[in-house]
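Reading is simple: each integer encodes one residue's backbone shape. An example follows:

___
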Amino acid sequence: MLHTIYRIIRWPLLIAASVLLIVLARRVFMMPSVLHYDDFVEYWAAGRLIITGGNPYDPEQILRLERAAGRPVEEAVMLWNPPWVLPLLVPFGLLPYPIARILWFLLHLIALAWGADRLGRMEAKSAASRWLPWIIAFTFAPALEAVKAGQITSFMLPGLVGAMSAFPRHPFRAGLWSALLLLKPHLAYLVLLTLLAESIRQRRPGFLLGLGVALTGASALAALLNPMVFAQYLHAWRMYPPSEWATPTLGGILRLLLGPQRVALQFVPPLIGLGFWLHRIRHRPPSLPELPMWTMLSLATAAYGWTFDLTLAIAGLVPVFPRRPSPSLRWFGLILAYGLLNGILMFTSLPQIFYFWAGPAWLAWFLAAQGAGASPASPRGSDAGGIAHAARQGAAEGSR
């Protein structure tokens, strides 16, 4: 009887909940206090400019549309993503800003949900642990911040998880998924290098082909819409470089301590990360089970980034998150540290530069959890973490 009632009312309830969510989202995202810090306006403005013959990298044109959308800014919030991102923004540029913002919000939720569900399928050892990625994804402070700010980083999570899952049996599909990492390639530079090296080592050209097809197709479409777009992108970097950004990165704090004018310091951490990657592959070949580690190291050493960019860390944290049925003191310590780090990011409001420690702190947490053997899919201290099981699961699903 109850099952019959549930089957009758579930769709009306789902539709009612969706309508309520849309109505609330429209009211919230059009509030001046929210618009003032909403980054989606830059994506909407760029999408509208490229379909109307404008320059999506021109600050004056961007500012005019951002003000028209209702954002009270004196200086344009510039789009710095490469031109191959623009085809993704075109559908939103065709819509009025309020409708586009609601759809963008819903797509963020879908991206997080899909990434969490896929991680759950890859990592789950029981029905209960299947929900762990969902809990992490929708309580992780950087992910919530990305959804609130309308940042494009959320769409990189499905790309990373999809590549992890597809590579063992479908390298071409993995290459297509990896194209999403090129939305902000500096956040996943070691992940991309590892996937490329692994495809070469295993003689799987399908990955490079898939990545090339996606990148070429998106770039060609952007150039078709605006033949000058790549020249405009390079011009923007020459004329209005983001060299004054006080980003919460190790490079940012180095510049703050040693001199803001020393822009080269911004790139010292990624050079160190690259050096460590090269040293590592000299002694052992790159492998898929190490992708969570390279994800965390990429985020900790990125040249540029903000706290919401740490959304990608979900793919690194889930494989090593404590699941032991008999909790130990170390288990409690890891859970407490996770809650403390997450709480600080969620409930404090400092200038972004003072969160420079966030990326390295999550890397340290990852290494501590991995070293403790917190992941049930790996032996104590293994570099593989739970992603070894993920690769096997992806291969099994791909063969069906």
